[in-house]
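We emphasize that the prediction below concerns an isolated chain of 116 residues; any contacts that depend on oligomerization or on bound cofactors are therefore not represented. The input was used exactly as deposited, without trimming of termini.
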Amino acid sequence: MHEMTVAHGLLTILEERAKAHGIARITRIRLKIGRLRGLETRQLRAAFEVLAEGAIAEGAPLDIEEVAARARCNACGTEWGLPDYRFECPKCQSADAEILAGRELHIESFDGERDE
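Result of the prediction step, given as a token string:
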């Protein structure tokens, strides 16, 4: 389950960023996750909840924006969505494609409270 590893990494980054900005408690986290990452968002939320117990982000909800996969054909320039992960151009059938979106995995922003 790589969701646990991802959740651990997110928590580490959040703790570092919060400390750098004088944030005592993180209250909400916004993530962008591309569909090609293969992460199950329910499992990621559950893993994060477990790891955040007793930490700065305990109880903070994860708002996850899933980014659809998109590609562009290097042969003819056609852009298309990849709902079924088919990397063959629908126009010219070339398999020479560039991934435009769907690999994202980053913290978009987070809210927090400063020390009083």
